[in-house]
Design goal:
By secondary structure, the chain is α+β, with helices and mostly antiparallel strands. It contains eleven helices and five strands.
């Protein structure tokens, strides 16, 4: 139940109850004395204060009770409708003890208020008090509040259960994906890594030159093993391996050089601490861009530029490959993955041929520095 602010419905109910009380009070015979004016004021206040019944149920309960006692003492034989609304709201909010104490007090004090209004017959005073606050009405208001409170509690419990079930299923799905990745990739990557290391070892033992491509395969196998291990640990919710980010970009560029690509890295601006998701996304964009250049671009050079702005990180990766302005890029899995990562962080991504030839990938990631 939202108790943060007073809404239009709250004011409508409060004004409606105040109007009913005031009309009922005016229908009696009263002279325009100061005491009568006080009674009219209490009738009005007792109704209007109901606007805050959800935000402050116990104070509203006390105010409506005091107003009811006040206008009864002033001689206004008007049912305590506002107090019944306050009982409902207080019980619904869970303040059962305070409501019971206040209601018992009202049942005791109302006959005294009736006597104070000028009645000399005790029986008549009790009859007026009973007419103003019937025990059945009081019980009904409390029961309605308790019934709705229980219904809301059950609804909240059901929502929590659904969320826990969803989290458990997500955890199970992560573990299933981790097992699938482990079973399908680890073995094959291990074979590639071992075979390349054996080939390098044999070539060196024979005194033969080791081909650059073989060294690149060996390093790629090692990196793939590290990446797969980090991915599996993340899927298993194991945060023992620090994620890769801006600090690891030189390693990416160095590996690109190792396979014969003349790659450069430029980081401009003042480095600031950035959110982990942004840091990881920068690394993945550069990694995927350099991988695509090596596989498809037939490029000789590549440049990686990161601009650290106060409110954003701008990444640009250019190559001098065979892409031309007239050719549209094929949206492969890597490019789609980059776009999804950037969009999820509220950023923008452009991937297209350059006017002077080659291909460019440009991304801008907003950085929220609010503490």
């Amino acid at each position: 139940m939202d108790r943060g602010r007073i809404g239009v419905v709250d004011w409508a109910i409060a004004v409606g109850v105040a109007a009913i009380l005031l009309v009922t009070g005016l229908s009696g015979e009263h002279s325009a004395t100061g005491l009568d004016l006080l009674g009219y004021a209490l009738l009005t206040v007792g109704g209007l204060v109901l606007a805050a019944r959800r935000r402050a149920p116990v104070p509203v309960l006390a105010v409506t009770g005091l107003c009811a006692v006040g206008y009864q003492a002033a001689g206004f034989d008007v049912p305590v409708v506002a107090y019944l609304f306050a009982v409902y709201a207080a019980v619904r909010a869970g303040h059962r003890t305070a409501t019971v104490v206040a209601s018992v007090t009202m049942l005791v004090v109302l006959p005294v208020a009736a006597l104070a209004s000028g009645l000399h017959d005790t029986g008549e005073a009790f009859a007026r008090a009973r007419g103003a606050l019937e025990l059945a009405w009081l019980i009904a208001a409390g029961a309605a509040g308790e019934a709705l409170r229980q219904a809301e509690r059950r609804a909240d419990e059901a929502e929590r259960t659904r969320e826990e079930t969803a989290r458990r299923r997500a955890d199970e799905e992560r573990l299933r994906i981790a097992r699938e990745l482990h079973d399908s990739l680890t073995h094959q990557i291990s074979i590639i890594k071992v075979q390349s290391e054996v080939a390098v070892h044999v070539a060196r033992k024979r005194g033969e030159p080791v081909p650059e491509a073989l060294l690149a395969i060996q390093e790629a196998g090692r990196e793939a093993t590290r990446e797969l291990r980090a991915t599996l640990e993340a899927l298993r919710d194991d945060d023992t391996t620090p994620p890769r980010g801006l600090d690891h970009l030189p390693e990416l560029v160095e590996r690109a050089r190792a396979i014969g690509l003349d790659a450069t890295l430029t980081i401009e601006g003042q480095r600031h601490r950035v959110p982990a998701a942004v840091d990881r996304t920068v690394y993945r964009i550069v990694q995927e861009s350099l991988t695509n250049i090596a596989r498809h671009a037939d490029a000789a050079t590549a440049s990686v530029r990161v601009d650290c702005r106060p409110d954003a990180l701008a990444i640009r990766v250019d190559d001098d490959g065979r892409a031309t302005p007239g050719t549209a890029p094929t949206p492969g899995v890597g490019l789609l993955g980059m776009r999804e990562r950037v969009t999820a962080l509220g950023g923008r991504l452009r991937a297209e041929p350059r006017g002077e030839g080659g291909f460019t990938v440009q991304a801008e990631l907003p950085v929220d520095r609010t503490p």
